[in-house]
Structure formats: structure tokens, C-alpha cells
Design goal:
Blueprint: E1 2-5, E2 13-15, H1 27-35, H2 37-52, E3 59-61, H3 62-67, H4 76-82, H5 86-102, E4 107-109, E5 121-125, E6 175-178, E7 187-196, E8 199-207, E9 212-219, E10 223-225
Parallel strand pairs: 1-4
Antiparallel strand pairs: 1-2, 3-5, 4-5, 6-7, 6-10, 7-8, 8-9
């Protein structure tokens, strides 16, 4: 996951949603997708190798990573022939580096290169820890009347229990993927578990455009462990 500081709002960041932005900046990347997809795959692989060899480093810059590529990397000649200048090769490397950090589960913060920063720097950011909050008290219903519980954006709270065979167990702090409803496909962190009508409901912290936000009332069947 990549987030980028919003220049007009100090201290505010925007979570990026596009793996390969549709801008002129990524022209080299799209050219490689069409003409040399295997080279693109191998640049990604060598970036992964170099970054993961130093798991404790909290920041990475493309200029440093390029120097760490093994001298016997078998795709070096193809890389040199595909692009006819050193700046173009570094530019492509920078774009593949973006996709690599975009694919990470953890959050990395970066900025586009500008006059004061010749290359982008990627800095690891820890996800905000869940805020400990006591479960919300359940309202008492009048005798003979079932309490009406409304959810926010994920369908009725009176959903059926989890399908037979579901054995997933979750707790606060677990990283999960949403599989149902308007947030399907997003990955977040469980911050709270409550009981509604005898069924577990999960509050999940999800990434927004500028910050993380807590979404309550996910049923068990709408979650799965993130890979």
C-alpha cells in the first residue's frame, strides 16, 4: 500500500488506488508491458530480492537499490538494450519500484520526484494500532419486540449466521479482507468485536483517501484472513 502526502494539507496523506497510474510518468512502464513483459517481471523480481534482503530498513531509494542489483543479474543486457539511455533505465526502475511497494500489505509513504528530490524515497509507516474501546451497550427492547439494528453500508444487521463449515476465528488486531458488500476487496484491521442478536459483529479499520476509518457491523461471513 502506498500513501502520498497531500501538499495543500499538512499532515494529511492520500492512499493511492491505482497500481499503474494513467499518466505520462508511466509511459516507459506501459511500453515495457507491451514490448518486454518478461523484462518487467524480472526487474520486479530483482527489486523484491534486494529489498527483502534488508527487512529492517525503514526507507528505500531507487538510486541505492539499483546499485545493489547483483553484477551477474542475467537480464542486465536486455535492460540495457531495451532503453537507450541511463536516465530512461532508471526511470523505468522507479516505476517498477512503485508497483512493488503498491503491492505490499504494509503501508509505505512516498512523494513523486521533484526539484528538491531527484528520486522518490519510500518510507515504511506502521498501521495505527487499534483503539481499545468497551463494547457498546445493547439497547433493551420492549417485551415481545425485537430490537431494530441498522448497519452502515453492508446490508441488514439481521443477516443469517455464518454458512456451515465456516471455521475462521478472528480477534482484535487481525488483518482481514472484506469479501461482501460495498467494501469488498479492501483489507483492514479488526479493532472491535460486539454481539448483535447473538451474532458476532466486527469493526474493521479501513484505508480512506486521507486517513483510516472504522467501519462497524461486519458479519463473520463477510471476512477472511488476508494473505
Amino acid at each position: 500500500m502506498i500513501r502520498v502526502p497531500v501538499k495543500t494539507k499538512e499532515g494529511v496523506c492520500r492512499v493511492m488506488r491505482t497500481r499503474v497510474p494513467r499518466t505520462r510518468t508511466f509511459e516507459c512502464y506501459r511500453k515495457a508491458e507491451e514490448e518486454a513483459p518478461e523484462l518487467l517481471k524480472q526487474i520486479y523480481a530483482v527489486i523484491s530480492q534486494v529489498v527483502e534482503a534488508r527487512p529492517t530498513e525503514a526507507a528505500h531509494r531507487s538510486a541505492v537499490l539499483i546499485e545493489r542489483i547483483p553484477s551477474d543479474w542475467p537480464y542486465r543486457d536486455q535492460w540495457l538494450k531495451f532503453l537507450d539511455s541511463e536516465p530512461a533505465r532508471r526511470f523505468l526502475f522507479e516505476q517498477v519500484l512503485w508497483t512493488y511497494f503498491f503491492d505490499r500489505e504494509e503501508t509505505w509513504e512516498t512523494t513523486w520526484p521533484d526539484q528538491g528530490r531527484p528520486v522518490a524515497e519510500y518510507v515504511r509507516k506502521a498501521m495505527s494500532p487499534p483503539v481499545a474501546r468497551p463494547p457498546s451497550p445493547r439497547p433493551k427492547a420492549a417485551a415481545g419486540a425485537a430490537p431494530e439494528v441498522r448497519t452502515r453500508g453492508i446490508g441488514p444487521a439481521t443477516a443469517a449466521p455464518a454458512p456451515a463449515g465456516t471455521t475462521e476465528q478472528f480477534g482484535p488486531g487481525d488483518i482481514v479482507e472484506i469479501t461482501e458488500g460495498r467494501y469488498a476487496g479492501l483489507t483492514g484491521q479488526i479493532t472491535e468485536i460486539t454481539l448483535v442478536g447473538g451474532f458476532k459483529r466486527f469493526t474493521v479499520r479501513l484505508p480512506g483517501d486521507d486517513q483510516y476509518f472504522d467501519v462497524p457491523n461486519f458479519p463473520l461471513f463477510a471476512l477472511k484472513k488476508a494473505n
